[in-house]
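re: that chain from earlier
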Amino acid sequence: MNKQSWALTSIKYIVVVISISLTVLVVISMLNSPFLGQFIIFGIFLFVVGYCCADLLTGTIHWFCDTFFSENTPLIGKTIIESFREHHTRPHWITKDRFIEQDSTSFFVLLPLLLNFLLKNANNIELLSYLLSGSVLVGLCVGAFGTNLFHKWAHSQEPPVFAIKLQTMGLILTPKAHKKHHNNHSKSFCVTSGWLNPMLDYINFFHYLENFLRFLFHAKKI
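^ sequence. v structure.
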């Protein structure tokens, strides 16, 4: 396992702290919404929708990196693809790294989205649309930010007590659910909650998506 540089670790810490802080600001502003009492059920529902979106998006990235390109692909081979393929042969290595050493791409990707949401809606906090769209965004952030931890805990022999509670409640990826992927690398790619895996596996979603992309770009299997 290659340890990342001090400079990269520092940058990750800064982006992680800023992204989490902005998410907290969105939540605080939503709690001050005049519509919170009336539409809290809708807010919770849309939070779950956002959380499911995180499951789908991170699962799609997982599938893509497992399926296309190779470790020798220029630029992305060693930096991105290799870690996904290595996880298949050494699945427990993920438990040896600190969270900050694992992939934190979601914090970088969602930081502009959070900034844009707060700046564009600075004067719209009292609108119902702010509460509803904010609920989706927060659900997406919670799922995306937590994906690597949830994945790591699914492989851990002794995860934190609260992580076990969340797994038992079915709120995050469980070891049993994730084992399906390591038994068959062509299935169960979602590693946030894993809620979408049974449906996506049943309809062969990623299989058809792969065939479509290969047809579209005339890409052959290696």
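The chain has a mean pLDDT of 93.
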